[in-house]
Amino acid sequence: MFVNPSSSLAEKSATDLFDQSALSELAQRLVEAARRAGADAADAVAVRGVSQSVEVRDGRVEESERSEGDDVGLRVLVGQRQAVVSTNDVSGDGVAKLAERAVAMARVAPDDKYVGFADPALLARDFPDLDLLDRNVPSTAELERRATEAEAAALAVKGVTKSGGASASSGIGGMVLVTSTGFHGSYLRSSQGISMTAISGEGTSMERDYDFTSALHASDLASPASVGRKAAERAVARTNPRKVETCKVPVVYDPRVSNSLVGHLVGAINGASIARKTSFLKDRLGQQLFASNIRIIDDPLRVRGLRSQTFDAEGVKVKKMALVDNGVLTTWLLDCATARELGMATTGHAHRGVSSVPSPGAYNLHLEPGTATPKELIADIKQGFYVTDLIGSGVNGVTGDYSRGASGFWIENGEITYAVSEVTIAGHLLAMFKSLVAANDLEFRYGVNAPTLRIEGLTLGGR
Fold first, then answer.
1. b vs e for 204-229, b when ≥16 Cβ sit within 10 Å of the residue's Cβ?
2. Reported pTM
3. For the domain with range 9-231, which CATH number is right: 3.30.2290.10, 3.40.50.2000, 3.40.50.300, 3.40.30.10?
4. Structural domain boundaries of the chain?
5. Disulfide check for 150: which of 39, 76, 143, 228 has CB 3.0–4.6 Å away?
């Protein structure tokens, strides 16, 4: 949806933007209507999404976009049969009709012995303040200023020949969950971001790179100028990349791509994959996967965390957990249904949209830092590869085979030297996890965070 740049979220009434009472009332009415229509149990999710963004190229606004909407979803159980319906319009007698339709669908759905709601003893009762909401919503003019400043800083760096565009965005998102088992909870979370893409070189020799910053609060964002400069410096550093011969070398992952290794682990320990037996880690619970100093944490209660919340999509109380402790895999990520299927207890990792049933997923993930600096991690490498960008998704979650397109820099005698492009990195995730060494430069910038990581003996596919 395109709008006049003068329109902004900041002009919307704070009462309208931050008040979820109408959504809470609607969710409650849906649950009650479902019970009247014959549901044995029901829950309702109401989701608010409001966002705006500005894109700038060559000093001019290229696009200004705004969207907003409230959507609701109703899940009902009739015996062991389940159905989900969703809508963004419940005017008139829409609540009753939606409930009746959901119950009718559930009655003809197949039985599923694993469906059901959370044990009331597991439901969240306390909702600590995680400082998720910045009430100072930026105007469109402020977003334009941020994007313009980022682009100007990038274009001022020697070697940058063109702008790939800069953008700034903000938004408010939240959820209300009401269940027939007595749970009623809600949260609102703000978001703000700045990004820049810079281009170096000319013609067929052009290279591009980017940087971005994202946070819940504007005060936690990196400055627009620093985002622009970093994007520019990265693009210039990639100029005139070389090819390398196929070889087996240590590979060092820059923090902006090292988090992908945590992502591969978490995908493999998702309870849905374990229940389907489609994970290469399906028989590895309680086993040593990493060196004994490696810990991987999921913390939904981190103050100002990008994915923080106090309850999951089934109302279960969430908690900080070590998914890997002293190198040992300690848990699967479970919602209630996958937990029942595996004969275990939910870990409070249910996620859900308005049109879907709950399914497991993570919150704020990080791999704890080691003791060596990144320079020390690289110092003894005679020949190796420092990867800064990954391409494609060539990871087989069933077998653990790993193959990703990559670009970065060649390491020679402990020093990062020339740019390298058009290579592939290949290995097996079990062997990669076992040899993983972490540096001490962890920063919390993303939903998944990791420091610089070194992996031994990966195959680098070159010319």
1. eeebebbbbbbbbbbeebbebbbbbb
2. 0.93
3. 3.30.2290.10
4. 9-231, 240-260+369-461, 282-367
5. 228
